[in-house]
Specification:
The protein is α/β, with parallel strands linked by helices and about 575 residues long. About 35% of the residues lie in helices and about 25% in strands. A hairpin with a 7-residue loop joins strand 9 and strand 10. The structure holds adenosine monophosphate.
Length: about 575
Protein backbone atom coordinates (compact mmCIF):
# COMPACT_ATOMS: atom_id res chain seq x y z
CA UNK A 1 0.00 0.00 0.00
CA UNK A 2 1.41 3.44 -0.86
CA UNK A 3 1.89 5.49 2.30
CA UNK A 4 0.02 8.69 3.10
CA UNK A 5 3.22 10.56 2.38
CA UNK A 6 3.49 8.87 -1.03
CA UNK A 7 -0.03 9.99 -1.89
CA UNK A 8 0.80 13.57 -0.88
CA UNK A 9 4.13 13.56 -2.79
CA UNK A 10 2.49 12.16 -5.92
CA UNK A 11 -0.30 14.71 -5.76
CA UNK A 12 2.29 17.49 -5.41
CA UNK A 13 4.35 16.34 -8.38
CA UNK A 14 1.20 15.82 -10.48
CA UNK A 15 0.35 19.49 -9.95
CA UNK A 16 3.90 20.77 -10.48
CA UNK A 17 4.24 18.93 -13.80
CA UNK A 18 0.69 19.47 -15.15
CA UNK A 19 0.10 21.64 -18.25
CA UNK A 20 0.69 25.24 -17.19
CA UNK A 21 2.53 24.09 -14.02
CA UNK A 22 6.07 25.30 -13.20
CA UNK A 23 7.55 21.94 -14.28
CA UNK A 24 5.23 21.10 -17.17
CA UNK A 25 6.43 18.01 -19.04
CA UNK A 26 6.62 17.21 -22.75
CA UNK A 27 8.14 14.40 -24.85
CA UNK A 28 11.81 14.22 -25.70
CA UNK A 29 14.16 11.58 -27.04
CA UNK A 30 17.17 9.75 -25.64
CA UNK A 31 18.93 6.80 -27.30
CA UNK A 32 16.13 6.58 -29.88
CA UNK A 33 13.38 6.26 -27.28
CA UNK A 34 10.57 8.72 -26.52
CA UNK A 35 10.94 9.83 -22.90
CA UNK A 36 9.51 12.72 -20.88
CA UNK A 37 11.35 15.99 -20.31
CA UNK A 38 10.65 19.12 -18.29
CA UNK A 39 9.58 21.60 -20.93
CA UNK A 40 10.09 24.69 -18.78
CA UNK A 41 13.80 23.91 -18.26
CA UNK A 42 16.48 26.08 -19.85
CA UNK A 43 18.11 24.41 -22.89
CA UNK A 44 21.73 24.52 -21.70
CA UNK A 45 23.77 24.94 -18.53
CA UNK A 46 24.89 28.50 -19.44
CA UNK A 47 21.20 29.38 -19.92
CA UNK A 48 20.44 27.81 -16.54
CA UNK A 49 23.26 29.81 -14.90
CA UNK A 50 21.99 33.03 -16.47
CA UNK A 51 18.35 32.50 -15.54
CA UNK A 52 18.85 31.48 -11.93
CA UNK A 53 21.80 33.76 -11.10
CA UNK A 54 19.58 36.68 -12.19
CA UNK A 55 16.68 35.33 -10.15
CA UNK A 56 18.72 34.80 -6.97
CA UNK A 57 21.11 37.72 -7.62
CA UNK A 58 22.10 39.06 -4.20
CA UNK A 59 21.65 35.88 -2.22
CA UNK A 60 24.79 34.13 -0.98
CA UNK A 61 25.85 31.32 -3.29
CA UNK A 62 29.39 30.26 -2.45
CA UNK A 63 31.01 30.36 0.98
CA UNK A 64 34.65 29.29 1.03
CA UNK A 65 36.39 30.03 4.32
CA UNK A 66 35.96 33.78 4.81
CA UNK A 67 35.18 34.36 1.14
CA UNK A 68 31.55 34.86 0.06
CA UNK A 69 30.12 35.21 -3.43
CA UNK A 70 26.53 35.96 -4.35
CA UNK A 71 24.87 34.28 -7.32
CA UNK A 72 25.34 37.49 -9.33
CA UNK A 73 29.02 37.77 -8.39
CA UNK A 74 29.69 34.13 -9.26
CA UNK A 75 28.04 34.58 -12.64
CA UNK A 76 29.99 37.75 -13.38
CA UNK A 77 33.25 36.07 -12.31
CA UNK A 78 32.61 33.02 -14.46
CA UNK A 79 31.73 35.26 -17.42
CA UNK A 80 35.16 36.93 -17.22
CA UNK A 81 36.89 33.56 -17.07
CA UNK A 82 34.83 32.24 -20.00
CA UNK A 83 35.90 35.28 -22.03
CA UNK A 84 39.51 34.49 -21.17
CA UNK A 85 39.15 30.82 -22.10
CA UNK A 86 37.86 31.81 -25.53
CA UNK A 87 40.17 34.79 -26.23
CA UNK A 88 43.47 33.78 -24.63
CA UNK A 89 43.32 29.99 -24.46
CA UNK A 90 41.59 29.13 -27.73
CA UNK A 91 38.73 27.12 -26.22
CA UNK A 92 36.17 26.22 -28.88
CA UNK A 93 32.77 24.57 -28.77
CA UNK A 94 33.16 20.88 -27.87
CA UNK A 95 36.79 21.13 -26.63
CA UNK A 96 37.42 19.04 -23.57
CA UNK A 97 38.82 21.19 -20.78
CA UNK A 98 40.00 19.33 -17.70
CA UNK A 99 39.52 20.53 -14.15
CA UNK A 100 41.88 18.98 -11.62
CA UNK A 101 41.43 20.54 -8.20
CA UNK A 102 40.03 20.10 -4.74
CA UNK A 103 36.63 21.57 -3.83
CA UNK A 104 36.54 25.35 -3.66
CA UNK A 105 34.56 28.37 -4.88
CA UNK A 106 37.12 28.62 -7.69
CA UNK A 107 36.43 25.02 -8.77
CA UNK A 108 32.81 26.11 -9.28
CA UNK A 109 33.80 29.27 -11.19
CA UNK A 110 36.16 27.24 -13.38
CA UNK A 111 33.47 24.70 -14.22
CA UNK A 112 30.88 27.40 -14.99
CA UNK A 113 33.40 29.20 -17.19
CA UNK A 114 34.36 26.10 -19.19
CA UNK A 115 30.68 25.44 -19.91
CA UNK A 116 29.96 29.07 -20.81
CA UNK A 117 32.95 29.03 -23.18
CA UNK A 118 31.37 26.04 -24.96
CA UNK A 119 33.85 23.50 -23.58
CA UNK A 120 33.12 20.07 -22.18
CA UNK A 121 33.89 20.23 -18.46
CA UNK A 122 36.08 17.18 -17.93
CA UNK A 123 36.08 16.48 -14.22
CA UNK A 124 39.31 14.76 -13.26
CA UNK A 125 39.39 12.82 -10.01
CA UNK A 126 41.30 14.93 -7.49
CA UNK A 127 42.55 11.85 -5.62
CA UNK A 128 44.31 10.39 -8.62
CA UNK A 129 48.09 10.12 -8.65
CA UNK A 130 49.99 11.79 -11.53
CA UNK A 131 49.88 8.73 -13.77
CA UNK A 132 46.10 8.37 -13.42
CA UNK A 133 45.55 12.10 -14.03
CA UNK A 134 47.67 11.95 -17.19
CA UNK A 135 45.75 8.90 -18.42
CA UNK A 136 42.42 10.67 -17.86
CA UNK A 137 43.64 13.76 -19.73
CA UNK A 138 44.90 11.65 -22.63
CA UNK A 139 41.72 9.57 -22.75
CA UNK A 140 39.55 12.68 -22.97
CA UNK A 141 41.94 14.41 -25.37
CA UNK A 142 41.90 17.59 -23.27
CA UNK A 143 43.68 20.50 -24.94
CA UNK A 144 43.66 22.51 -21.73
CA UNK A 145 43.61 21.57 -18.06
CA UNK A 146 42.88 23.97 -15.22
CA UNK A 147 44.69 22.53 -12.21
CA UNK A 148 45.43 23.65 -8.70
CA UNK A 149 49.07 23.58 -7.57
CA UNK A 150 49.07 20.13 -5.88
CA UNK A 151 47.54 18.41 -8.96
CA UNK A 152 49.83 20.34 -11.31
CA UNK A 153 52.77 19.06 -9.25
CA UNK A 154 51.54 15.49 -9.49
CA UNK A 155 51.36 15.91 -13.26
CA UNK A 156 54.94 17.15 -13.56
CA UNK A 157 56.91 14.79 -15.78
CA UNK A 158 53.82 12.79 -16.82
CA UNK A 159 53.19 12.61 -20.56
CA UNK A 160 49.83 14.09 -21.64
CA UNK A 161 48.56 16.24 -24.51
CA UNK A 162 47.16 19.24 -22.58
CA UNK A 163 48.42 22.71 -21.77
CA UNK A 164 48.24 23.29 -18.04
CA UNK A 165 47.03 26.53 -16.47
CA UNK A 166 47.43 26.59 -12.72
CA UNK A 167 44.84 28.31 -10.55
CA UNK A 168 44.69 29.06 -6.84
CA UNK A 169 41.77 28.89 -4.47
CA UNK A 170 41.97 32.55 -3.37
CA UNK A 171 40.34 35.72 -4.72
CA UNK A 172 43.16 36.32 -7.17
CA UNK A 173 43.51 32.63 -7.99
CA UNK A 174 42.78 33.12 -11.69
CA UNK A 175 45.39 35.78 -12.46
CA UNK A 176 47.35 33.39 -14.71
CA UNK A 177 44.22 32.44 -16.66
CA UNK A 178 43.15 36.05 -17.10
CA UNK A 179 46.54 37.44 -18.14
CA UNK A 180 46.31 39.21 -21.49
CA UNK A 181 42.74 38.05 -22.10
CA UNK A 182 39.67 39.81 -23.45
CA UNK A 183 37.22 39.06 -20.66
CA UNK A 184 34.32 40.31 -22.76
CA UNK A 185 35.04 38.08 -25.76
CA UNK A 186 31.89 36.76 -27.42
CA UNK A 187 30.81 33.34 -26.19
CA UNK A 188 29.42 30.64 -28.50
CA UNK A 189 25.71 29.88 -28.83
CA UNK A 190 25.08 26.34 -27.60
CA UNK A 191 22.17 23.96 -27.82
CA UNK A 192 21.01 20.98 -25.76
CA UNK A 193 22.93 18.54 -27.93
CA UNK A 194 26.33 20.10 -27.24
CA UNK A 195 28.65 18.08 -25.06
CA UNK A 196 28.59 19.44 -21.48
CA UNK A 197 30.46 17.14 -19.11
CA UNK A 198 32.75 14.15 -18.92
CA UNK A 199 33.04 12.29 -15.62
CA UNK A 200 35.23 9.28 -15.09
CA UNK A 201 33.81 6.01 -13.96
CA UNK A 202 35.75 2.93 -13.05
CA UNK A 203 32.74 0.79 -14.03
CA UNK A 204 33.79 -2.81 -13.68
CA UNK A 205 36.04 -3.18 -16.68
CA UNK A 206 39.35 -2.00 -15.34
CA UNK A 207 40.48 1.31 -16.75
CA UNK A 208 38.41 4.46 -16.28
CA UNK A 209 35.93 5.41 -18.96
CA UNK A 210 34.80 8.95 -19.72
CA UNK A 211 31.01 9.15 -19.31
CA UNK A 212 29.81 12.04 -21.50
CA UNK A 213 26.60 13.98 -21.14
CA UNK A 214 25.05 16.68 -23.27
CA UNK A 215 23.58 19.92 -21.94
CA UNK A 216 20.05 18.57 -22.31
CA UNK A 217 20.84 15.55 -20.12
CA UNK A 218 22.60 17.46 -17.36
CA UNK A 219 20.02 20.26 -17.25
CA UNK A 220 17.16 17.76 -17.12
CA UNK A 221 18.90 15.82 -14.34
CA UNK A 222 19.26 19.05 -12.38
CA UNK A 223 15.60 19.88 -12.97
CA UNK A 224 14.48 16.38 -11.98
CA UNK A 225 16.31 16.83 -8.68
CA UNK A 226 14.75 20.27 -8.26
CA UNK A 227 11.34 18.69 -8.96
CA UNK A 228 11.93 16.24 -6.11
CA UNK A 229 12.95 19.06 -3.80
CA UNK A 230 9.91 21.17 -4.75
CA UNK A 231 7.69 18.13 -4.30
CA UNK A 232 8.91 17.63 -0.72
CA UNK A 233 8.70 21.39 0.02
CA UNK A 234 5.15 21.54 -1.32
CA UNK A 235 4.07 18.72 0.96
CA UNK A 236 5.89 20.20 3.97
CA UNK A 237 4.20 23.54 3.34
CA UNK A 238 0.80 21.89 3.02
CA UNK A 239 1.45 20.09 6.31
CA UNK A 240 1.98 23.51 7.96
CA UNK A 241 5.77 23.07 8.20
CA UNK A 242 7.15 25.34 5.47
CA UNK A 243 10.92 25.80 5.17
CA UNK A 244 12.33 29.00 6.67
CA UNK A 245 15.21 31.04 5.32
CA UNK A 246 17.58 30.29 2.48
CA UNK A 247 18.39 26.62 1.92
CA UNK A 248 22.04 25.82 2.56
CA UNK A 249 24.16 22.74 1.88
CA UNK A 250 27.63 21.66 2.86
CA UNK A 251 29.91 20.60 0.00
CA UNK A 252 31.63 17.73 1.80
CA UNK A 253 31.70 15.31 -1.14
CA UNK A 254 33.97 15.87 -4.14
CA UNK A 255 32.58 18.09 -6.88
CA UNK A 256 34.21 15.85 -9.51
CA UNK A 257 31.79 13.01 -8.69
CA UNK A 258 28.23 13.07 -9.92
CA UNK A 259 26.58 13.39 -6.47
CA UNK A 260 28.62 16.50 -5.76
CA UNK A 261 28.18 17.86 -9.25
CA UNK A 262 24.49 17.41 -10.06
CA UNK A 263 22.18 17.08 -7.03
CA UNK A 264 24.40 19.09 -4.71
CA UNK A 265 26.07 21.85 -6.74
CA UNK A 266 24.12 22.36 -9.99
CA UNK A 267 20.71 21.93 -8.35
CA UNK A 268 21.60 24.82 -6.04
CA UNK A 269 21.23 27.33 -8.89
CA UNK A 270 17.59 26.36 -9.34
CA UNK A 271 16.59 26.39 -5.67
CA UNK A 272 18.75 29.38 -4.68
CA UNK A 273 20.79 27.34 -2.23
CA UNK A 274 23.94 28.54 -0.49
CA UNK A 275 26.92 26.16 -0.77
CA UNK A 276 29.52 25.94 1.97
CA UNK A 277 32.81 24.53 0.71
CA UNK A 278 34.91 21.94 2.45
CA UNK A 279 38.30 21.19 0.95
CA UNK A 280 38.34 17.81 2.61
CA UNK A 281 35.98 15.75 4.75
CA UNK A 282 36.37 16.28 8.48
CA UNK A 283 33.37 15.62 10.78
CA UNK A 284 34.26 18.27 13.39
CA UNK A 285 34.79 20.93 10.72
CA UNK A 286 31.49 19.82 9.14
CA UNK A 287 29.65 20.33 12.43
CA UNK A 288 31.31 23.71 12.96
CA UNK A 289 30.17 24.83 9.51
CA UNK A 290 26.65 23.44 9.92
CA UNK A 291 26.29 25.56 13.05
CA UNK A 292 27.96 28.69 11.63
CA UNK A 293 26.21 28.75 8.26
CA UNK A 294 22.90 27.22 9.39
CA UNK A 295 23.20 24.35 6.95
CA UNK A 296 19.77 22.85 6.16
CA UNK A 297 20.84 19.94 3.94
CA UNK A 298 23.59 17.41 4.42
CA UNK A 299 24.47 14.81 1.79
CA UNK A 300 27.35 12.42 1.82
CA UNK A 301 28.33 8.85 1.32
CA UNK A 302 26.63 6.74 4.00
CA UNK A 303 29.55 6.81 6.41
CA UNK A 304 29.40 10.60 6.66
CA UNK A 305 25.98 11.12 8.24
CA UNK A 306 26.74 8.24 10.60
CA UNK A 307 30.03 9.90 11.55
CA UNK A 308 28.04 12.99 12.61
CA UNK A 309 25.32 11.00 14.40
CA UNK A 310 27.86 9.09 16.49
CA UNK A 311 30.53 11.72 16.96
CA UNK A 312 31.67 12.11 20.58
CA UNK A 313 31.72 15.92 20.16
CA UNK A 314 28.28 16.17 18.50
CA UNK A 315 26.66 17.88 21.50
CA UNK A 316 29.14 20.75 21.35
CA UNK A 317 27.47 21.98 18.15
CA UNK A 318 23.99 23.22 17.30
CA UNK A 319 22.99 21.12 14.30
CA UNK A 320 19.25 21.79 14.53
CA UNK A 321 19.12 23.82 11.30
CA UNK A 322 19.86 20.63 9.37
CA UNK A 323 16.62 18.86 8.48
CA UNK A 324 17.98 16.36 5.94
CA UNK A 325 20.78 13.81 6.24
CA UNK A 326 20.94 12.33 2.77
CA UNK A 327 23.20 9.57 1.46
CA UNK A 328 23.97 8.10 -1.91
CA UNK A 329 26.73 6.47 -3.89
CA UNK A 330 26.79 3.24 -1.89
CA UNK A 331 24.38 1.08 0.09
CA UNK A 332 23.46 2.51 3.49
CA UNK A 333 23.29 -0.14 6.21
CA UNK A 334 19.65 -0.53 7.25
CA UNK A 335 20.37 -0.01 10.95
CA UNK A 336 21.89 3.43 10.23
CA UNK A 337 18.48 4.80 9.30
CA UNK A 338 16.87 4.55 12.74
CA UNK A 339 20.15 5.42 14.47
CA UNK A 340 20.52 8.66 12.51
CA UNK A 341 16.91 9.59 13.18
CA UNK A 342 17.37 8.93 16.92
CA UNK A 343 20.66 10.82 17.20
CA UNK A 344 19.58 13.79 15.05
CA UNK A 345 15.81 13.98 15.68
CA UNK A 346 15.45 17.43 14.04
CA UNK A 347 16.30 15.84 10.70
CA UNK A 348 15.26 12.92 8.58
CA UNK A 349 17.55 10.46 6.85
CA UNK A 350 17.03 10.38 3.07
CA UNK A 351 18.53 8.05 0.44
CA UNK A 352 19.28 8.55 -3.24
CA UNK A 353 20.31 6.03 -5.87
CA UNK A 354 21.85 6.78 -9.23
CA UNK A 355 24.98 6.36 -11.35
CA UNK A 356 27.46 8.57 -13.13
CA UNK A 357 25.88 7.33 -16.38
CA UNK A 358 22.43 8.54 -15.26
CA UNK A 359 23.69 11.89 -13.98
CA UNK A 360 22.88 10.71 -10.45
CA UNK A 361 19.21 10.41 -11.30
CA UNK A 362 17.39 7.24 -10.25
CA UNK A 363 15.45 6.85 -7.00
CA UNK A 364 14.79 8.76 -3.81
CA UNK A 365 13.45 7.55 -0.44
CA UNK A 366 12.27 10.41 1.78
CA UNK A 367 11.64 10.96 5.47
CA UNK A 368 8.84 8.79 6.95
CA UNK A 369 8.84 6.62 3.82
CA UNK A 370 12.50 5.82 4.39
CA UNK A 371 11.93 5.03 8.07
CA UNK A 372 9.16 2.64 6.95
CA UNK A 373 11.32 0.98 4.26
CA UNK A 374 14.92 1.49 5.36
CA UNK A 375 16.19 -1.24 3.02
CA UNK A 376 14.88 0.51 -0.09
CA UNK A 377 16.32 3.24 -2.29
CA UNK A 378 12.74 4.43 -2.88
CA UNK A 379 10.68 4.62 -6.07
CA UNK A 380 11.83 6.01 -9.43
CA UNK A 381 12.24 9.78 -9.16
CA UNK A 382 9.37 11.57 -10.81
CA UNK A 383 8.68 13.01 -13.28
CA UNK A 384 11.45 11.75 -15.57
CA UNK A 385 12.70 8.34 -14.44
CA UNK A 386 11.68 4.79 -15.31
CA UNK A 387 13.16 1.83 -13.41
CA UNK A 388 12.82 -1.82 -14.36
CA UNK A 389 14.46 -5.15 -13.53
CA UNK A 390 15.67 -7.32 -16.43
CA UNK A 391 16.49 -11.02 -16.65
CA UNK A 392 19.66 -12.45 -18.23
CA UNK A 393 17.95 -12.52 -21.63
CA UNK A 394 17.08 -8.83 -21.35
CA UNK A 395 13.35 -9.36 -20.73
CA UNK A 396 11.58 -7.04 -18.32
CA UNK A 397 10.64 -8.78 -15.08
CA UNK A 398 7.39 -8.26 -13.18
CA UNK A 399 7.44 -6.51 -9.81
CA UNK A 400 8.85 -8.69 -7.06
CA UNK A 401 11.33 -10.56 -9.25
CA UNK A 402 15.05 -9.90 -8.93
CA UNK A 403 17.15 -8.97 -11.95
CA UNK A 404 19.58 -6.37 -13.22
CA UNK A 405 18.22 -2.88 -12.64
CA UNK A 406 17.86 -0.57 -15.63
CA UNK A 407 17.34 3.19 -15.49
CA UNK A 408 15.85 5.14 -18.38
CA UNK A 409 15.42 8.90 -18.67
CA UNK A 410 16.31 11.92 -20.74
CA UNK A 411 19.04 12.53 -18.12
CA UNK A 412 21.08 9.48 -19.19
CA UNK A 413 24.56 10.00 -20.59
CA UNK A 414 25.16 10.00 -24.34
CA UNK A 415 28.02 7.50 -24.18
CA UNK A 416 31.60 6.79 -23.18
CA UNK A 417 34.16 8.96 -24.92
CA UNK A 418 35.57 7.22 -27.98
CA UNK A 419 34.19 3.87 -26.90
CA UNK A 420 31.07 2.88 -28.87
CA UNK A 421 31.43 -0.76 -27.82
CA UNK A 422 31.35 0.01 -24.10
CA UNK A 423 28.47 2.43 -24.73
CA UNK A 424 26.43 -0.21 -26.55
CA UNK A 425 27.14 -2.69 -23.76
CA UNK A 426 25.94 -0.21 -21.14
CA UNK A 427 22.49 0.21 -22.70
CA UNK A 428 19.54 -2.12 -23.33
CA UNK A 429 17.85 -2.01 -26.74
CA UNK A 430 15.10 0.06 -25.08
CA UNK A 431 17.58 2.68 -23.90
CA UNK A 432 17.86 1.72 -20.23
CA UNK A 433 21.29 2.11 -18.61
CA UNK A 434 22.33 -1.31 -17.33
CA UNK A 435 23.34 -0.55 -13.77
CA UNK A 436 25.13 -3.78 -12.89
CA UNK A 437 23.07 -3.71 -9.68
CA UNK A 438 20.68 -6.55 -8.85
CA UNK A 439 17.36 -5.76 -7.27
CA UNK A 440 13.58 -5.87 -7.40
CA UNK A 441 10.64 -3.50 -7.19
CA UNK A 442 8.10 -4.11 -4.43
CA UNK A 443 4.34 -3.78 -5.02
CA UNK A 444 4.55 -0.01 -4.30
CA UNK A 445 7.31 0.43 -6.88
CA UNK A 446 10.05 0.78 -4.25
CA UNK A 447 13.45 -0.48 -5.37
CA UNK A 448 15.42 -2.88 -3.20
CA UNK A 449 19.01 -3.46 -4.28
CA UNK A 450 20.15 -6.87 -3.14
CA UNK A 451 23.52 -7.43 -4.80
CA UNK A 452 25.98 -6.21 -7.39
CA UNK A 453 26.65 -8.01 -10.66
CA UNK A 454 29.69 -5.92 -11.56
CA UNK A 455 33.13 -6.62 -10.14
CA UNK A 456 33.27 -3.37 -8.26
CA UNK A 457 34.24 -2.45 -4.72
CA UNK A 458 32.68 0.68 -3.22
CA UNK A 459 34.92 2.04 -0.48
CA UNK A 460 33.09 4.84 1.28
CA UNK A 461 31.35 5.85 -1.96
CA UNK A 462 34.49 5.70 -4.09
CA UNK A 463 34.24 3.02 -6.79
CA UNK A 464 37.16 0.70 -7.40
CA UNK A 465 37.30 -1.76 -10.30
CA UNK A 466 38.91 -4.96 -8.99
CA UNK A 467 40.37 -5.50 -12.45
CA UNK A 468 42.29 -2.24 -12.36
CA UNK A 469 43.91 -3.10 -9.03
CA UNK A 470 44.66 -6.63 -10.24
CA UNK A 471 46.31 -5.18 -13.35
CA UNK A 472 48.45 -2.93 -11.16
CA UNK A 473 49.52 -5.96 -9.10
CA UNK A 474 50.35 -7.99 -12.22
CA UNK A 475 52.50 -5.09 -13.42
CA UNK A 476 54.92 -5.92 -10.58
CA UNK A 477 57.53 -8.33 -11.96
CA UNK A 478 57.40 -10.58 -8.88
CA UNK A 479 53.63 -11.21 -8.96
CA UNK A 480 52.33 -14.27 -10.82
CA UNK A 481 48.73 -14.35 -9.63
CA UNK A 482 46.48 -11.80 -8.01
CA UNK A 483 42.85 -11.42 -7.07
CA UNK A 484 41.21 -8.33 -5.60
CA UNK A 485 37.82 -8.24 -3.91
CA UNK A 486 35.87 -6.35 -1.28
CA UNK A 487 35.32 -7.25 2.37
CA UNK A 488 32.83 -5.50 4.67
CA UNK A 489 33.93 -2.56 6.78
CA UNK A 490 31.84 -0.83 9.43
CA UNK A 491 33.39 2.52 8.54
CA UNK A 492 33.72 2.39 4.75
CA UNK A 493 31.00 -0.12 3.81
CA UNK A 494 33.58 -2.12 1.89
CA UNK A 495 37.37 -2.13 1.58
CA UNK A 496 39.57 -3.70 -1.12
CA UNK A 497 41.83 -6.60 -0.19
CA UNK A 498 44.19 -8.59 -2.38
CA UNK A 499 45.48 -12.12 -2.48
CA UNK A 500 48.70 -12.68 -4.43
CA UNK A 501 51.28 -15.25 -5.34
CA UNK A 502 54.96 -14.50 -5.84
CA UNK A 503 57.13 -15.80 -8.66
CA UNK A 504 59.27 -18.66 -7.26
CA UNK A 505 62.49 -17.28 -5.83
CA UNK A 506 61.37 -13.65 -6.04
CA UNK A 507 62.40 -11.64 -2.99
CA UNK A 508 59.41 -9.36 -2.59
CA UNK A 509 57.70 -8.25 0.59
CA UNK A 510 54.23 -6.90 1.22
CA UNK A 511 55.80 -3.47 1.87
CA UNK A 512 57.53 -3.52 -1.54
CA UNK A 513 54.24 -4.30 -3.20
CA UNK A 514 52.39 -1.61 -1.27
CA UNK A 515 54.96 1.02 -2.22
CA UNK A 516 54.75 -0.09 -5.86
CA UNK A 517 50.95 0.19 -5.89
CA UNK A 518 50.99 3.61 -4.23
CA UNK A 519 53.04 4.94 -7.14
CA UNK A 520 50.46 3.89 -9.71
CA UNK A 521 47.11 3.98 -7.90
CA UNK A 522 45.21 6.57 -5.88
CA UNK A 523 45.42 5.79 -2.17
CA UNK A 524 41.77 4.71 -1.91
CA UNK A 525 42.39 1.89 -4.42
CA UNK A 526 45.35 0.35 -2.60
CA UNK A 527 44.19 -2.86 -0.85
CA UNK A 528 44.10 -2.60 2.93
CA UNK A 529 45.49 -6.16 3.13
CA UNK A 530 47.84 -7.84 0.69
CA UNK A 531 47.67 -11.51 1.63
CA UNK A 532 50.41 -13.65 0.21
CA UNK A 533 49.26 -17.13 -0.75
CA UNK A 534 51.62 -20.01 -1.31
CA UNK A 535 49.30 -22.44 -3.13
CA UNK A 536 47.42 -21.89 -6.42
CA UNK A 537 44.24 -19.82 -6.17
CA UNK A 538 40.87 -21.63 -6.57
CA UNK A 539 39.69 -21.63 -10.17
CA UNK A 540 36.42 -21.92 -12.04
CA UNK A 541 36.07 -24.23 -15.05
CA UNK A 542 36.95 -21.31 -17.30
CA UNK A 543 40.33 -21.00 -15.55
CA UNK A 544 39.18 -17.72 -14.04
CA UNK A 545 40.03 -17.26 -10.37
CA UNK A 546 36.97 -18.22 -8.30
CA UNK A 547 36.63 -14.94 -6.50
CA UNK A 548 33.50 -15.92 -4.62
CA UNK A 549 35.24 -18.96 -3.09
CA UNK A 550 38.28 -16.88 -2.28
CA UNK A 551 36.17 -14.18 -0.69
CA UNK A 552 34.26 -16.76 1.40
CA UNK A 553 37.59 -18.13 2.60
CA UNK A 554 38.85 -14.74 3.74
CA UNK A 555 35.49 -13.60 5.10
CA UNK A 556 35.78 -16.27 7.74
CA UNK A 557 37.34 -14.67 10.76
CA UNK A 558 37.27 -11.21 9.14
CA UNK A 559 36.39 -8.38 11.52
CA UNK A 560 34.42 -5.52 9.89
CA UNK A 561 35.66 -3.21 12.66
CA UNK A 562 39.29 -3.92 11.75
CA UNK A 563 39.38 -1.22 9.06
P1 LIG B 1 28.86 5.88 -9.50
O1 LIG B 1 28.63 5.77 -10.95
O2 LIG B 1 30.27 6.00 -9.12
O3 LIG B 1 28.00 6.94 -8.91
O4 LIG B 1 28.41 4.48 -8.83
C1 LIG B 1 27.12 3.99 -9.01
C2 LIG B 1 26.96 2.72 -8.22
O5 LIG B 1 26.99 2.99 -6.82
C3 LIG B 1 25.64 2.05 -8.44
O6 LIG B 1 25.59 1.28 -9.61
C4 LIG B 1 25.50 1.21 -7.18
O7 LIG B 1 26.24 0.00 -7.28
C5 LIG B 1 26.12 2.10 -6.13
N1 LIG B 1 25.08 2.88 -5.42
C6 LIG B 1 24.80 4.19 -5.56
N2 LIG B 1 23.80 4.57 -4.74
C7 LIG B 1 23.41 3.47 -4.06
C8 LIG B 1 22.40 3.18 -3.07
N3 LIG B 1 21.61 4.12 -2.59
N4 LIG B 1 22.31 1.91 -2.63
C9 LIG B 1 23.11 0.93 -3.11
N5 LIG B 1 24.07 1.13 -4.04
C10 LIG B 1 24.23 2.38 -4.51
Amino acid sequence: MPSELDAALNSAIDRLTAPGGPLETARGERHGQAVPLIATAPPTLPALFARFCAEHGDKDFLVDGERRLTFAAAHAGARRLAGALVSAHGVKRGDRVGIAARNSANWVLAQMAVLMAGGCATLLNGWWVGEELAEGIALAGCKLVLADAPRAERLAGQPHPARLVVFGHENDGFDALLAGADENAALPELDGGDLATMLFTSGSTGKSKGACSDHLGVVQAVMNYAAQTLMVLTVKTEQGDPPVGQPCALVNVPLFHVTGEVPLYLQSFVIGRKLVMMAKWDPVEAMRLIEREKVTYFVGVPLMSMALAEHPRRHEFDLTSCVTFAAGGAPRPVDHVARIRAALPHGFPVLGYGLTETNAVGCGNFNENYLAKPGSTGPASRPLVEIAAFDEAGRRLPRGETGEIGIRSICNFVGYWNDPEATAAALTPEGFVRTGDLGYLDPDGYLFIVDRKKDLIIRGGENIASLEVEAALYAHPAVTEASVFGLPSRTYGEVPVAVWLARPGAAVTEEDLRAFLAEHLAAFKVPVWLWRETGALPRLGTEKVDKRALRERYLEGWDPDAV
